[in-house]
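The instructor's notes for this session suggest beginning with a concrete chain rather than abstract definitions. Hand out the sequence below and ask the class to guess, before any prediction is shown, which regions might be ordered.
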Amino acid sequence: MANILYEGRNYWEDRTMMTYKVTDEGVLYISGSLSGKFPVHIDPAYKFSQVVIEEGVTSVGSKCFYQMQNIQELTLPSTVTNIGDYAFEDCKNLEKIHFSEGLVSIGKYAFARCVKLTGLELPQTAIDLGWGAFMGCTGLVNVSLPNKLSVISDSLFRACESLKAIKLPRGIKTIESQAFAYCVSLKKINLPHGLQSIEYEVFKNCKSLKTVKMPQTLQSIGWNAFIDTGIKEIVAPWTKPIQMKRRAFQIQTVIRVPQDSMAAYAKATKWKDYKLEAIESAH
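After discussion, reveal the predicted structure:
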């Protein structure tokens, strides 16, 4: 049985209160409110490496644990529905996160640059992932995304340098700008049927990405979307050229298009800038 070394409380600007206790096993237990917009203050004399947020807490405020370098493990209860902006940003020793079903949203840059985080299994209830929520998590290797997610947000996994493969849920409609930019180890990603938009620089500098299959449902590709990748050719499965911005692919990329659509592609803005090859039918 762990012994309690210290108990205390913090009051927030909205007059709610957080209570906490630190045990001799290095665990910080938190209850009450985490509604503050500034970092939690714990007496530095009491060392802890694990944070357990207890049932009843409904949200984690922005910057609550910002740059807390001692945190190695985090457990969140089913009652937490929202994690605020920058809540755990730059927690550089955070290795494990135990999410619970019930979490709905994760704020922008909430876990950015948690460089020792290697695995990420998000609950199925999480449908709103903020800009750059896991940006710069350079040790991240395994990611499991919720099935009901519809948007991969701006810079969500930008510069996750160890990420080699990721499976996108079927419900994804939009991949926002730079979502996977600078993921230099990324070799495999599926673009699901139902995807409509790939915004600018989504896969910029993904040097290990050599193949990608375009879904029939795609409607637009942003500028520099696939620039500086290992992709040398793509198959365009659309009978009519879709909207494509400047330099979506590297200029030497070969675009293979349906034979009956060669004339349309040869006249289409931006498509005509690439080397086009005819195929008998769309793949």
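Then share the key points. The mean pLDDT is 94. Helices lie at 262-267.
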